[in-house]
Amino acid sequence: MSSSTTVPEARPETGQETAYRRARIAALPGGAFLEGRWETTEMTVEVRDPEDGVLLGTVCTSTPQDVRRGIAYIHRHLEKDDWALRDRREALERAAVLLADQGLRFAEIIAAESSKTISEAEREVRRCTETLRLSAAASSELVGETLAFEDSIAGANKIGWYNRKPVGIIAAITPFNDPLNLVAHKLGPALIGGNGVVLKPSGRTPLTALAFIQLLLEAGVPTGRLAVFVSGPGVSEAIVTDPQVDLISFTGGPKTADRIAAAAGAKKILSELGGNNATIVCADANVQTTAEAVVAGAFGVAGQNCLSVQRVYVHISLFDQVLEKVVAGTRGLRVGAKFDRTTDVGPLISEAEARRVEEWVEEAKALGGIVHVGGQRLGAFYQPTVLTDMSAKALVISEEVFGPVVSIIPFIQLNDAIHAANDSEYGLQAGVFTESIELALAIADKLHVGAVVINETSDVRIDSMPFGGFKKSGVGREGVKHAVREMTEPKSTIIKLAGPATRWQELSATSERNAS
Question: What is the pTM of this model?
């Protein structure tokens, strides 16, 4: 349906089809995996479809004591049971095959409990399959090199090498917006690196993660390498403060990251904390291509994407044309039921989040902003919204919106656009549209972000690339082989030899004795 309509369409499925799908989802394991088994007691935490509030299933709560038991079990397993690299690689390869075979099932789970349409969920499953394959192939990263001792005074009469070893136990904390692939981006590299993992998925979308753990176990990942806890008082704090956890990999918001860092103490922490992503449209850009990319990049997953396009700086000579085409493209989006394959934009993850986006847009309007399309909410749905005439003080400009809102802003001098793009506490990714590769590279060099995408928006992630940002956008890099390096450490082996003259005499004497 058009975004000019406020009422989402009803589900296209028959009641029988919906009941069958939800029965399969409800049959998932329940809520915690520790000490090699599923915990199904205290199944009191409800998981509901954000579109209509229908109950999808329940998961169990856990306690800090459960967390300690689960982590201790992994620690014991790491100490006494070897898991060869070849076996790790083969398990992840099998997991990729299993996931491809079960693609529709996983897509249904993702779409049911999250904001993603069924088409978006299917794309996530395909990406996750690739992430698992890349993780298996990253076994080649677990190599080292010989140490160059000959060029050092202290290295005389020594030879040595280093190779990469697992850090130990990794705590993986994941968000709701990519409930499968972001879990795989932590677990795949951690497991190929030889680590154990304790997973804390989002309580809003836990069913996908639980199904994924079940699949990894089926693929041959040892039970002693995994633990999962979804919910419970003190569970998150117990995970990050446990002294047997060696590294924390977190995707979420900066405020939560600050609390984790304060609580965890002297642990290695990898964090991806979102973005306020800008795209710069130069005077020679292709208007149609630019507008199509902005619409796709701003409103996918209802804007709940750390790479979502939020600020678009357009040269004044193209501003009216780009704005017109972005507004037209936005009006053409179909907002509605997630399981309708003609739907482009589904609900936000909760009505509370939709209300927050609504409040931010109203604040922008009060500061002089103009809504060209959208700007209306119904329940958890918020219409894709295009704004202009924005104040730099508006939250939709200064903070991460994480909703279907994009601001189009004119510029005259390119340096002003670059300065405005950089004028953010975040620095995740950015896009640049221009026909000049020289200009594109010059702009890219001045943008203080983790990646610059030429003739595309910020909304591009290739699962093998080093992924992360500067400033408030996080610490460290994901992207499979890069995460493997973060989740392992070099370990050196050094051998002291006898002095060369002494050793030569010993070898010569031994040879002569053997000859006689």
Answer: 0.90
